[in-house]
Specification:
The protein is about 30% helix and about 25% strand. With about 140 residues, it is α+β, with helices and mostly antiparallel strands. The protein has a single domain, classed as Histidine kinase-like ATPase, C-terminal domain (Heat Shock Protein 90).
Length: about 140
């Protein structure tokens, strides 16, 4: 199952997107806890795109959702300021100032996070969660 979303970088688009992705994840067999973790990672990336890549100004965000029997992959693209979150060092915990943990959460919640350096027009980030690691014992969405 594949789906493409094209959105304007604005926080108002996040809630409807989350609802639609939640349904797609449920159709893909993800249980509630795992689906919410995937949604949190996507939300963190999109929030960073809105705040940092575009500096709060309107810009285009493309989200490619692909589900297969082995994994779910969500690719997020923007045409804003270049930034490779995979190059950030792990944060020092506990944090003594608010914020700055979004990339840490993304890395922790997803099985693979891949920044596509060949994407010249901005940023392309692949978030991958393997179904072999699905949590058992919870009801699907």
């Amino acid at each position: 199952m594949k789906k493409k979303f094209e959105l304007v970088s604005n926080s108002e688009v996040l809630s409807p997107l989350r609802q639609e992705l939640r349904q797609l994840l449920g159709l893909g067999g993800w249980e509630k806890k795992s689906a919410e973790e995937i949604l949190l990672a996507v939300d963190e990336v999109l929030t960073n795109i809105i705040r940092h890549a575009y500096g709060g100004k309107p810009g285009k965000m493309v989200i490619l959702f692909e589900d297969s029997p082995e994994k779910t992959e969500i690719v997020l693209e923007d045409h804003g300021k270049k930034f490779d979150p995979t190059q950030l060092p792990p944060p020092e915990l506990p944090c003594h100032k608010p914020g700055g943990l979004g990339v840490h959460f993304i890395r922790t919640l997803m099985d693979r996070v891949v920044y596509d350096e060949s994407f010249k027009e901005g940023n392309r980030l692949h978030l991958i969660k393997f179904k072999s690691k699905m949590l058992k014992g919870e009801r699907p969405l």
